[in-house]
Amino acid sequence: MIEALERIYSFFRFPFPFCFGVAFIGIVLLLSSNVLKSLKINSKKIQIIGFILIGQLFIVGLILVLLQSIILNEIRNEFIRILESPKTQIVQTDKNFGIFTSDELKVELIKIKEYSPHHSGTSNEMKLKLVNPDNNFNIKVFRDSQNPNEYWIFTDKYWFGSKDEEIGRITTNKFK
Prior knowledge:
alpha+beta; five-stranded antiparallel beta sheet
């Protein structure tokens, strides 16, 4: 399902920049309809077309925002399902936050949630590899630059905007 949503997202994302040009044409039509109105020429059709051309920008933008939210929610849910599988193992490729067993990492990563941004960045990074009979992908865990107990979770399993997609954050004091 996530792949289908990503295709729909890609379909709308590609023409989105052109929607601004079309909306600009709509603004020009609305302005010209005011001139036609002052010349006592029927300009109702031009106004309607102008409003439609401007409205399409907001509709496409709203669709993209909703799709992105749905996709990230689905990715988090699938991520949790994969972590809950007894066949899933997490391998540390570096020890930046300490040494942990696969089960310890699963317990912490399963706490993933969506946090509202607070205009901070990332600092230290820990690289992990999730190994499962059905899925193998990389996970990057970044420490928040302002809150030392908050960690950002990125994965390269899905792509709908950037190479590594932030799928959520966790709060823990287990990582050093």
